[in-house]
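**User:** My hope is that you can spare some time for a protein that puzzles me. As I understand it, each token names a local backbone shape. I would be glad if you read both lines and explained how they fit together. The protein I mean follows directly.
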Amino acid sequence: MGLFKDYVSQTRKPEGFLGKMMVNGMNGGHAKMADWGMSHLKTIAPEQIVEIGCGGGRNAGELLKKYPSSHVTAIDYSDVSVSKASDYNADAIKNGRCEVRQGDVSALTLPEGEYDLATAFETIYFWPGLKECFAQVAKVLKPGGTFMIVNESDGTDETSLKFEKIIEGMKCHTIEEIEDALKTAGFSKVKSDHHKSKPWITVIARK
């Protein structure tokens, strides 16, 4: 149980050998969920995208494919994740279409009003205060910008709630909690979708 707890705790901030193992598994393990979430982006054509909590970098790469004329800034507060995401998107970085940097969503140092789209896949469980962190995201979005959240947990499924008890700092949120925090942080036109057979959720808000 001790090693298992140590391993799953790496989802919060991957570090060291176990962190590298965790990040290597993130890209494949969450791919179907991430693609389902991304399928909800149908009416926008963002030029500047920020991918927050980028993990292994796979989702940043998929956003670059989905929007061929875009630039993606991927951030994570884990050194291990930044390294893996940089390797994964090496060609895009070389071609000037992607930047991977270390950052903290509770105190973003990105340019204000810069981005058309912000995404957060399987990461807000670990954000220290949704309202405050969502306000940070709003700050860096352009007026009318879009913020998309995709979670594997709807805040009520038994499996995720078990992990919540094991992983320090993890909090599973319901759609209602996420929507309320978004509106408090200044977002409007909040829309949500719940997967028909899984606890996956997608929440999209407009600044």
About this structure: The longest helix spans residues 16-29. The chain has one domain: 2-206.
